[in-house]
Fold each of these.
Amino acid sequence: MMRYRLEKRPEPSKLMLYGTPVAAVVLTMILGCLLFSAIGYNGLRAVQEIFLTPLTNPYKWQDLGIKAAPLIIIGTGLSVAYRANVWNIGAEGQYIIGALAATGVALMTWGMSGWWILPVMAIAGMAAGMAYASIPAFLKTRLNVNEILTSLMLTYASVQLIYYLIRGPWKDPMGIGFPQSRLFSEAARLPNIIPGTIVHLGVPIAVIVALIAWFVMSKTVFGYRMRVVGAAPHAARYGGFSETRTIWLAMLVSGGLAGLAGMLEVAGPFQRMVPGFPTNYGFTAIIVAFLGRLNPLGVIVAGVVLAITFVGGQVAQTTIGLPDEATGIFQAMMLFLLLAGDILVRYRIRRVSPEASVGAA
Amino acid sequence: MPNRLELTGITKQFPGVLANDHVSFVVKPGEIHALLGENGAGKSTLVKMIYGIMQPDAGEIRWNGEPVVVANPKAARKLGIGMVFQHFSLFEALTVLENIALGMDAKIPSRELESRIREVMETYGLALDPHRTVATLSVGERQRIEIVRALLLNPQLLIMDEPTSVLTPQEVEQLFTVLRKLAAEGCSILYISHKLHEIKALCDTATILRGGKLVDTCDPKEETSRSMAEKMIGTGLKDIVRAEGRAFGQPKLVVNRLSTGKTGHFDVPVDNVSFTVRAGEILGVAGVAGNGQNALLDALSGELIGDDREAITIDGHGIGLMNTTERRRQGLCAVPEERNGHAAVGDFTLSDNSVLTARDRLGMVMMGLINSGAAKTYTGKVIADFAVKALGPASTAGSLSGGNLQKYIMGREILQKPSVLVVSQPTWGVDAGAAAAIHQALVDLAAAGSAIVVISQDLDELRALCDTLAVINMGRLSAARPVKDFSVEEIGLLMGGVHGSMETA
């Protein structure tokens, strides 16, 4: 009789650290194929359409870029916060509030022109995202309220704020009753960077944000602070890093970046505020952050992978009639498998026979 | 009568280390047998094989003359082998009775269990109320729970792993009485320790291991502490070298009426503590664990910030309101008791761990950027100067053995040349050779004019190392006096809370 035992590794395994995300994606494909076959779809085709078509069809690449951009920006912010064990689950809300603030600027400057409008919108978006994230930060540091709950619940409040604004004060006067804001002026729309496509300025910005974050996290005292508070809070205090300040910083960075993503999204693909603006980028970015191993460089790759599932999900809807929810199922499966596989980073599986069990304790 | 336990040619190989190399010895019924050796000598591995936690690669274990395979601890207990670990596995929020019930292999009704517990306590004079919550008990009392737990199984062999490291001298005496009584009834005891005078006082036979090999089996009563220590470390033992008759300088660290608030549920705060340490002086703070040592260290290091600027002064500057980083800039470094997760981050490389406390004092940060080259160079120096067994600055702290990590941490602070150093348990779990090196480094730092506070539960260490000594009990500190003015009995009484006339100070 063979038994298996988990055994702690002397050092965390680098191979597993980078291998498990890949394995999680591959396993998701296999299990997804089985799952959709079992409920009567062509499982193989579903996996092919979701994971491969977006890559093999050059026409879809621009979609990948603009879907990946907000995921990368928000995911970068979340990876910074999660490193410090600050669990901001409400990036979706900060993303929405950031977009609303940018919309406010766009509407106030409607009809005007000038290069300064977009930067002001970006600053407003980031400031609003930070302000919204500071509510959970305040509650956590002053009253020790769990930030997971408060940041999550504030997301739902922010959605209601969209509905109120676009049905009331910001309603498009030319919109024949549609609940939406008016179309932004030219100066408040993100320029396309590749003519003839829909690729906007937000895409390179996302890559630059991730690169800067990588540098900051690996080379600066700020990044060190985040890593040490997350890895050993007691040691962080001994090393002179206050926990309260770290929680604030983590919340502000992740909230600010979510707000920036909101601004880029509303000024890029949407160009106006509509009820359908919230598309769960803020939640999907949680998966992006983990799949990217909380490393901004990994987040770039993970953002593209999740963008593939979004784009592919749409493809599969039209080609084989897969339900819209299929994308969510694949994404959730990926996160689940990734977190389950994480144990192999610190532990290895040893086969032990009952008469001679081996292993260090 | 057959031997109680007979090991023949026990060998255990780990990746890269031969932990036990053909170890053979015999424990007779009713014998108190010491297992002696430095950290890493293979003592723990050996007893883990006896207790069934791991299996030998080669060799034979005979139990009462019969060859046996001890598959797991449950099988060991069934044979009649009990073990009391160095680190207790107790739930603080539960009562003594509940803790014992949880550890039993067989389900016993709690009333019956309680009467059996009382019986065992009565027989061996182990005073303990089964209905007390563990959190309210001293370390010595907690150890009694573990002993009672082992004795309930009527063991024929009791393994004790470093049992006295947390006890007052009086508690040690009580423990020895229990162990002698057990041995007189025929129970064999395998006693792991590196405290040689205890082994001389208690044990009938001593088996000495070094580097996984059996070096000698001897009668400790025939040996001197020094001869056994030399067998243990393999070379001549170095004494602490200190200049005799050196004078102390000006008061450096002055603590005046320092108190801390109650932080955690079970923490003991510091209550109105005052002391002075002069340049060149080593002050020892003795006490049983859990009497406010952690709060004292945190209050001095700056992890706990008080509300009185002048409660702590260095060279006359009040630092009572500063955080740890500012205090380090003022020259105060500290080493807390817990190594992993407090003094060092296990997941980080040693280089990154150097950044944790040395970044400001040694210029590892320029405009917010970490100079990893400087951190690496410094870490390399610590590893070399303190003979830390590590592959290099890029090894993670968690991959080091406890003793080596402690050497690294002590080195990291000492090489910063702090003008005040506060350390807790500087040689906890560290082998004799490493402990001597750490002690010498502390003495040298003091000789260079630093003021040092050593908080320790190890009286031998304090008596060897310190110039002056004070005792902490329930958060209050006795007056400091030259260490040679104290007798062991007196320190023991102070540790137990009998302050007598010295409380007024």
Amino acid sequence: MTQLLDEIETCIPALRRYARALTGNVDQADDLVQDCLERAIRKRHLWSPTGTLQSWLFTLLINIYRNQLRSLKDRPSLSSIDEITSEPSIPASQPDQIALAETKRALASLPLEQREVLLLVTIEGMAYKEAAEILNIPIGTLMSRLGRARKRLRKLVDHEPEKSEPTNLRRVK
Amino acid sequence: MIKDKNNIHHDDLHAYVDDQLSPDDASRVEHYLSQNSDAASFVAELQKQKEQLKTLFEDTLQEPIPDRLSPHELAKTIEAEAKRSSSHPLFNRSRWQSIAAILAVFLFGNVSGWFGHHSLIASNLTSQKRPMVRQALDAHTTYAVEVLHPVEVSGKEEDHLVRWLSKRLQVPIKAPKLQQSGYHLVGGRLLPRNDGVAAQLMYEDQTGKRITLYLIRNQETETSAFRFTSEKNMNAFYWLDHDVSYVLVGNITKEALSPLAKHIYAQMAS
């Protein structure tokens, strides 16, 4: 038990980072992580050591967040979190910071299904297969969501109506 | 891995950016990029985007982990809960627990035994609440029992009260109307916070039961689901709704408090 708790503890920084990127809010993110940890400790007998502990914790966290958003949708007259674009919290003084703030804002505007994929793959650096298992989606779905997320992010950050992607990928000899 | 050995597809470029390819496949993509400037600039852009996303959140990893997220502390709390509900059904309610603890001190002096153990756990629970909720519970405890000066500005001057609090919070607020639920506005007060101010509105029913609504301004526009928490004989719902965060606290049951929270939410949203 103590060993498991120690192992859980080592996953917390990554969980907090992911939760913060996913929710866009420090307190809400820590609430989410706390919910996740409580559930993990209560349901620790359900964890099978076949997968990594970290994957299991991410799975719990994402499911809790999906459920929270679902219950949010049941409440009338409240815009979904995907529609809200918050102001950048980084002072927009240098070009780099402007770009960062724009990326942050664009991220918040992505649909959840795209955001959860993009963040697992980019920020957490997960293998596609592992990310697909955590999200409980086929790998093809993961790829298409990742593609759409990146396309939308480019579009929002660059302020260009529709940036073309290289469509004519030619044969490699 | 690259599925089609003769073609480079879009997915392969993503996989290249995300380090998902074998060294062989990666060098095949690199070779392709060297001959195709469109694809090369596309990849460069994805790489830049990825770096930005990582930069945005990398600081989180260095932050100290707050106590409320310590797995060891959480496990203690959870175990204590389980023990309490299985072996001491009578002391399930914290009120009984405090009465019993006081009696134990009276009767046995220093021999507090497991009672002492339990009160330690109660304080752990307390420290794990988010700051906003902690402050709201403390403010409720302090002022809901106050007979002479429960509020700074009376509910009779509702317009003045709302204008004043809106100005100090720097966000327009309303005092929700709860007459239908049997509660009238006693008034409100301004409270200090580490990084700004908070407002407390107090309501009372016919029997003198009081509930308080704690409001703070959100740093960023955001929303959340209703969340519930309890402590001692207090129950609380809290939620974030665009510019303002709310904590509704009362010494009434969760079932009685819940419709009030929803009622307030509905009025504030409109």
